[in-house]
C-alpha cells in the first residue's frame, strides 16, 4: 500500500524540452487522492522557487515544503538539530545562488576562521582555493567540533570545456584532512532519504520513489527500505536493468504511475 | 640478523638544534661494517641535496641514492615502471622547490589538460585552486588511464596562522572525483617502504627502521614486515607505547643503536 510518493525532478517530471507528458496529471491525481508527495532533487544551483514556478506553469499547485533539495534539507536538518544543540553561527561555503536561501540564519562572517557551530560545504566552484579549503579545515578542527554538512556527494559535472569538480571531492578532502565524516544531504545519502521520509510523514514501507537514475534514486532508496519505480525517461538506459537489485516496477514514464498505483491497490 | 637500516631524518638523526648526539658515529659505524643504510623521509620541501649537505657537515659521506623521499621515490618508481609502460609526459603538481628534481623527465606543459601518462600530485600549496584541481581531474580521466602518484599522504601542517592542507586531502579529492586510487609514496605507504627495501637490496626480515613517529615510522613499517626501533628523541611521547603493537626495541636515541645491534648479533 503506497501512502506517499517521492519524485525525482530532472528526467522524471521535467526535462530540457519541458514537462514530461502526463507529469502534471499524475501529481494532480495524487493530490486529489490525498496521497502526499515531495520532489527530491540534488540540484543546488536552482532555488526551490524555480521548481515551484515550473510546477505552476504545468498547472500544479505546490508549496515550498514539497521541494526537497540539499539546501532545503540542510535547513530542515538544522531546525531539527537546533532543538538539541546550538547550530549557529553557520559557516557557508556555497555559491551565491544558494546563499540567499540561508539568510534567515545566523551566518559566520565570510572570512572568519573560528567560531562556527556548523560548517556547510556546497559547490563553491571558482570560489574554491587554497585559502578557502584551509579556512574550512580550521573551522572544522576547533572545539567544540562543529556539525559538518555536505550538500550532496556529486563527483563532477561536464562543463563546456571539460570536467569540473562538484561538492563531493571537496567534502572528501576535508573529511580526510579533519577526520570528521560529513552528514551528506543529497541522493543517495541515507540521511537525505530519512529527511524526505520525515517531511512526508509516512513510514518507509509505504513510500514509493520514482526516478530515472538507477544508482542515486533506485539503489539508494532501496538501501533505505523504500519501494522504487524506475521510469524509462531521462537518463534511463536499458543496461540499468542488467545488474541487481531490480526496482519494484519499471514504467515507461511517470504518466503510467496512477494506473499502476490503482492496480496495486 | 640486521643487514640493512632505514633511518627517519627529523627527530632521529637531526633536529632544529642540529645533529642528534651520536648520529654521525652511528652512520659511520654501519658503513664501516658494510651494513647498508638509507634515510627515508617524507619531506618534499627540501631537495635530497639539502640532506646530503647536512650529512657532510656532520662528517658523514653519503650520496644521493641514500636519500629516499617521496620525490626520489617517485623517480625510482618511474624508472622501474618505464621498463613496462610509458610514463611520460608527466603532469607535475608540485611546489617550485620540488620541480627541479624532475627536470630530466619529459614534462607536460604547465597548463595542458590532456596527454599525461603520469599525474604526480604534491604539495602545491597556494597553487591549488579550482582550475588546477579540475586540470588534474581532466588529466586523470582520459584514456589510457595515466599513472597517479601522490607524494605522501600528510593531512595538514601547522603554519603560523593556522592549519594548512598538505598533499593528502588533495589526493583524496582527486581519488573521489576520478575513482582512481593513487600510488602513495611517503611513509606509511607500503609502496614507499617497498621501494626503500628495493633500494636497500636487503629482504624485509633483515631490515630495521629507526624512527621517532610511532604511527608513520613504526606501525607503518611493521605492516610491511620490517623490524622496528623507536627512539625517545624528536616527537616521541611516553603515550606512544600505550597501545600495541610495540616496536621491537625502544632506544634512548640513535646513539644507542650500534650497541644494541652488536648485542643482538
From TrEMBL, chains A, B:
GO terms for cellular component: cytoplasm. Keywords: Hydrolase, Magnesium, Metal-binding. Signal peptide: none annotated. One of its GO terms (molecular function) is phosphatase activity. This is Haloacid dehalogenase-like hydrolase domain-containing protein 2. Its cofactor is Mg(2+). Belongs to the HAD-like hydrolase superfamily. Coiled coil: none annotated.
Amino acid at each position: 500500500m503506497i501512502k506517499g510518493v517521492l519524485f525525482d525532478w530532472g528526467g522524471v517530471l521535467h526535462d530540457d524540452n519541458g514537462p514530461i507528458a502526463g507529469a502534471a496529471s499524475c501529481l494532480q491525481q495524487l493530490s486529489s487522492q490525498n496521497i502526499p508527495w515531495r520532489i527530491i532533487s540534488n540540484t543546488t544551483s536552482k532555488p526551490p522557487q524555480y521548481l515551484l514556478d515550473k510546477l505552476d506553469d504545468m498547472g500544479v499547485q505546490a508549496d515550498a515544503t514539497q521541494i526537497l533539495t540539499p539546501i532545503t534539507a540542510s535547513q530542515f536538518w538544522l531546525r531539527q538539530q537546533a532543538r538539541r544543540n546550538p547550530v549557529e553561527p553557520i559557516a557557508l561555503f556555497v555559491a551565491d545562488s544558494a546563499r540567499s536561501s540561508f539568510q534567515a540564519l545566523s551566518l559566520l562572517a565570510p572570512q572568519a576562521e573560528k567560531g562556527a557551530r556548523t560548517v556547510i560545504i556546497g559547490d563553491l566552484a571558482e570560489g574554491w582555493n587554497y585559502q578557502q579549503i584551509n579556512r574550512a579545515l580550521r573551522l572544522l578542527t576547533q572545539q567544540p567540533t562543529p556539525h559538518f554538512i555536505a550538500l550532496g556527494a556529486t563527483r563532477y559535472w561536464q562543463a563546456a570545456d571539460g570536467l569540473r569538480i562538484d561538492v563531493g571531492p571537496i567534502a572528501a578532502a576535508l573529511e580526510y584532512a579533519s577526520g570528521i565524516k560529513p552528514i551528506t544531504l543529497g541522493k543517495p545519502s541515507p540521511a537525505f532519504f530519512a529527511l524526505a521520509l520525515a517531511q512526508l510523514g509516512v513510514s518507509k514501507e509505504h513510500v514509493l520513489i520514482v526516478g530515472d537514475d538507477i544508482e542515486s534514486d533506485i539503489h539508494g532508496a532501496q538501501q533505505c527500505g523504500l519501494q522504487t519505480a524506475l521510469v524509462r525517461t531521462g537518463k534511463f538506459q536499458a543496461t540499468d536493468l542488467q545488474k541487481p537489485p531490480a526496482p519494484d516496477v519499471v514504467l515507461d514514464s511517470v504518466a503510467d504511475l496512477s494506473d499502476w498505483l490503482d492496480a496495486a491497490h
